[in-house]
Amino acid sequence: MIVDIEETITIDRPRSEVAAYAMDPLHDTDWIDRLSRVDLITDPPVRVGTQVRRVAFFRVAAPLLAGRVRRGVHDDLQRLKRKLESGSGPSRQSGSGPSSRGLDS
Length: 105
Fold this sequence. Notes:
The structure is a single chain. This protein has one domain (15-89). It is built from 3 helices and 2 strands; from the N terminus they run H-H-E-E-H. A two-stranded antiparallel sheet has the order 1-2. By secondary structure, it is an alpha+beta fold. The protein has helices spanning 15-22, 28-31, 62-85; strands spanning 35-40, 52-56.
């Protein structure tokens, strides 16, 4: 079964800040529902080529999975928006930008 999901949201924060936070797998469990664990398979820092294992739980039958995943993606993006717009995401002064974790490599 192929599930293709596309969801769009506008977050009132600088694009670089949103990208740095959302693309760092170490933050995934903060905003992606149903993820119980995220493991870096490759050595840190997070950079191009980093491999990640994500463990999630879904308690639905296969035909219902696509709808649940679509709703989940929508809810996850709303959670990311709230987190970043409320200021509880990355701190601009803490060195949490992409270059501090090697994301521009």
